[in-house]
Design brief:
This is Restriction endonuclease. Keywords: Coiled coil. It comes from Chryseobacterium joostei. By secondary structure, this protein is α+β, with helices and mostly antiparallel strands. The protein folds into 7 domains: about 150 residues, 3-Layer(aba) Sandwich (Trna Endonuclease, Chain: A, domain 1), CATH 3.40.1350; about 170 residues, Rossmann fold (3-Layer(aba) Sandwich); about 120 residues; about 55 residues, no CATH class; about 210 residues, Leucine-rich Repeat Variant; about 130 residues, no CATH class; about 200 residues, no CATH class. The protein is built from 51 helices and 33 strands. A hairpin with a 6-residue loop joins strand 16 and strand 17. Helix 1 crosses helix 15. The longest helix has 30 residues.
Length: about 1400
Amino acid sequence: MNWNNFLVYGNNNDVAFEMLCNQLFESYLKRTYGDELVKFRAVNGAAGDGGIEAYGILKEGSILAVQAKWFRATLTKTQFKQIEESINTALTLRPEISEYIICIPRDLSSLKFVRGKKGEPKQPAKEHEDKLVDAFTKEMLEVHPTLKITWWFDHDLDFEIAQSGNEGMYKFWFEKEVVSLEYLKELFELSRVGWLEERYIPELHAQGLIHKSIQELSFSQEFRNGFTADLAEFKDLLNQIIKKIQAFIKNNASVSIEQDLLTNFILHLEKEIEHLNAMIDALDMGNDLYKVEGQNNYDVDEILNKLKRIVPLNGQNGVVSDLIDVIVKYTDFKEQDIESVFSATMRLILGDPGTGKTHGLTNAVDIHIKKGFPAIIIQAKGAKSEDWTSLLSSSLSLPGWTKDQIFSAFQALAIQSEHKRATNRSDPDFEHTKILVCIDGLEEDFGKEGIWYARMREAEVFMRTYPRLKFVFSARSYFYQKTKIPKGKGFATVFLPREGDVPVWSVAEEYFSEEHFNIRIDSFTKVRGIDSLFALRLFCEEYQGQTIEKEEDILTATMDLLEKKIDRIEETFKSISEQQFSQGRTPVRDALEAVSDAFCTKSELDHTELSNVLKPNVGEYLSSFEVLIDFLVNNGMLIRSEVFDQGIGMKKKRSVYRMLSNSVIEMIIAGRLATNISNGTIANIPTEFKNIGQELGAEETVSAQLILQSTVDRLFISQNKLIGDDGFLTDGVEQGKISSLRLTALVNAKGEQVEKYKAEVEEMLLSPGENQFNVLANLILPASRFNENPFGALFLHNVLKERGSTFERDKKWSGLDHHEEFILKVKDGRSYSVKDALIGFAGEYLDLSPYSFYDETPLVFGWALSNIDQDLRSRLRASLTVWALKQPEEFEKLLDKLFPENDPQIQEDLSSIMLALAGKLKDPISIERLARWSLNNIFNHVVEHRNVIVRQGMRAIVERAYGLGLLNSWEVETSRPRQLANDVLIPLDNDALEDGSEQIYPIVSDLAWYVIKKAYNKFLDHEDTDEAVEFLHRFSLENENVELYPHVWGMAAAIAYIKNLGFNRNEGNSFTDDTHGSKSKIYTYEEKYTWLAVHYLQGYLSDNLSPADLGENVVISDYSLLSPIPNPAESKYFRSRAATQRNPPRWIIKSPLVKERKDDEQINDFIKESIDSEPELNFCDWIDFSENDFSIKGEKPMLALYNKTKVHDSQELYMGLLTVRATFVKKGSMDGLSDCKDELYFVENLDGLVAHPETHTYSNPTDLVWMEWIGEMESEDYFINVEGAQEVVLKTITKVITDDSSDGEQSSIIPAKAVRKLVGIVDLAEGMFRDREGKVVGTQQEVKDNRGNYQELLVIDKERMMDRLAKEGFEMIWFAEFLQHTNYSNKTLAEVPNYQKVRKYMVKYTGNEFEVQKFWDARYTNKR
């Protein structure tokens, strides 16, 4: 190589040579070892890693490393000494290095003769380089016998650079310096002022689905953090399963399941945990070369089937059902393709016009380049797409470069970037730098979709050689052809919601701001009809600088805005033109129609071509085209850029023109087509605009879909003619396409048109499956953006409310259960469900515009709450909660609209939303309004509203209003549980009374054995109480003296209630998906109605009886004692969208809990000595904190109520677990206690120092914090003081268990009720506990890693706590437990004994320091 021509790209020779060697080394490893290479990392000495520039790890564990030395002269002893030091440093840091490659940019001088002594002939040189290198290599092998040293001198480097995959490397490093990051920046800037000028405004960009997809491709820290959390959650689930299987076996519940079946499953799960740990490590290190293993699915069907057939013995119910639950969650998670995460290579972004595809891709390239990473964006339209070499060389202006040379040059840029990152960071574990190639608008390149699909499939092949390459393509939705997409695991298609990459409302305020378009408007509800980002841009251009008055009519539809813009600039042009025009002349419109036709087949026109296009259309009456062209450019309809033609001699500059947007072209053409069809110029739609989705010929255009739809829309509006009526416009159009065109056009229906098509739309809406999906997706949901639209939400409301009964409506609207699918003969495949339609319209999280009125999309969502899909309900509740917090008055109107329809499940979910509002809403006026709504509509009609979910949710807002002084005491009393005097006897089903069986359809199997009993067990379980006997006796007299037992009464009452809702099946589903009383993810209708009956009967019984465990004449205090009440604000769907930007939790470990082993210590001795020796615990480090520790602004001291910290040593040989719990005792009452075991009998089980809410098993932390009336159980303990008197210990923490259909079971620790009352805590949000003034009084956090280390902390304001305790005559005493034992999970320690020690301490704060008394030192926690 000619090193005199070596290009350094702004670096010195040493650094540039290191980059070249890293690139060659990476290529060598991948070429030589293929899939055996599991990690590659460029580290660079400046980042703290000495001795090497980069290394690779092979699957069997050995490491290969490279070191680059810019030694251009003959090697000297000093230089060999440098190499020796590098080798020693490298092996000290990474002993596993098996091969060490040394790169030197020169060839060795071989044996040569030098002048001998006087009179003697020439002698061979004693220290020629060949000999020195051999001697040095031999010397190193003696010191490091397992190390292979390989030298890459000049000829070796030349050989490597000539290998396949390195084609562009020589050009990059030794020819003209062309491809650089600065060059890519320049190209991007040219695109920004050229074809992207009107499409990309960086300061107005909001990151959405496209950003998320590209983060996944880039394997960025942002993406990896989220995925690591998912894997950690799954690992926790696997550990839960193992524990629950062990509990299952221990409980003797496994008699009907072979124990080997369960044991083998445990072994499989342990193996999966090992693989998960390896994956989490790979994510932590940014290692996207990691090959996922162990993803073979374990067949759990046999285990599940046998579990579901078990009839548990007494005490085993929970064990069996818990095990079933966690195994079902396991199967759900295993459906994910985890492997694709590590092999993500390509994305195809699909979305409708104006959904922000170009904006999203451009922003991604912008960010990538600003980070110093190589990236390009190419406009597909007009690109030389016949092959990748032509595409890239023309787009990059690199004539003569091949695709491989360009890709190789990109790889070199990526290596450069990586080298700089390693130099500038102390942590080398960042992801590999990726090369981003974005190609935008595939559908705009007319007739070439087959070519672009071929380019995509070829890209998959390139990425095997150039793994840093990542491709992103974008197109409109109709471009998608499943048979043509790449088949590799790294490819994925991203479908954007109709509203766009980001919702319009999320960026509208920024667009309207004074810094941008300066539009002043009193309420954003006026612009909620803007349905795309493109329409938002047109709107802002139209109303820029204006104040929109309250009653002013404004345009929001894309077509209307474009027409208005054309009309406006038409008038402006005429007014400024020196030429006079007759009234019928429209030069601007004529010109735009002409150039639109031309731009259908060409991406750009030069000035001459543009003039030639205009001449036949406006030439006869327009004297000069120049003024018109400049005018169209200045008004943003045409985009002009300057290009230079390369040739011999001087460069020649010329102007080229593009259209503002493809959407503009399509709308203009559609307008002309509609006009021509209306006036009879043409009879039908031209062939090129039909049958989108079929194989397209060279003359057809894939942008025809919008043209076709816009033409149909315009003809329907102007001519009152709809495609498909009497064969209108149907010639040559597919039947399926006609239906979607009709439905989309009906969004514009008015007056008589509505009446004409009403029956057709209604029939489709009530036809579950494809018809219902299509009418929702194409008509009802788009129309629901405006309450004035006759086919919007109110249309759906009126159709559904007219159904004969709740059940008749459910069968048509709320989803198909197994029995309905059987009746309708639904085949496997696409479900065409309501859920599919809603997610397609509003995105994964069902985002609602905060400006929507109640009778728009929120009303559709409200009706969808009746669905049998529990995940859909959870998403809807969260979405409506977020909306209701912004629009509480509209939520009240939604209640007015839906509650009278008497759908109990909808009423439950709306009440759950009210529960969330009670804890989250801050505006007192809104709180009072909603509270009075609850009083007037629910609690003034309690006989009509027995459902406990409804009552609890509605009570919450009343209690909140009362707490704020907005209601008086007698008003709040009406919302609280009470027994009703002379209550009516509800009907019992006669057939059920006559039958008297344990199972009666529809309440059969688990519904009869477990679920229905939840309705009455708490009240009638002990039927021999006087109240219960009298209660059943009254029903017996009313029903011909039939003998009634609790189960007979419960079945008869429930079935009567279910039948009253219209349930009229005589046969159906005999089993539910979930068993033993758990709720299925998809209900059967039998299951749905049984649960509704349970909630109804619980309310009825609480109105008439005392709970059996509370004694007679005692009213239940809270409905949460009977049933878990879902709070949408606790769900992951709410948290993902409503969370504040709190800093992520961090470890707070001020002193070590475990020791570290030295190299010369035996493992066995180290573990034993570490555990047996007295720990050096400074409890100030574990109890005393400040706000700064938790990234809270301020220096306020905080005290731990609870601190549970578990850590391992770095080699994972043993672990230490410190648990500290605070208590309150009367000041001085524990003084003098020496041996706590006798006086403090609870010390054997310090886990018991936690209270529990007096609710159902499940409750919501945010509710408990402010619901002062909810009591606590086990909140006190006792001890004997030195005088022999009994004293009280108050517990300071409460354990809360939450269960949400989207999250599963979760537990958290909050301050106990006594603490909350003492320091004034009334609110919990994002882990922060606040008082009535909004001041932070305490905080909770949890952090964990993939090695089993975790920390859970709950702290409280120290000064406030101590002051108020002192006033009450109490003090704080902490009880601490420190457990140490051998790390059971470390398989290499199988021969090491299980050393274990437990120490317990009592800690007291004296005001200046912590006094510590150890009272336990034993092997076990419960005996000594």
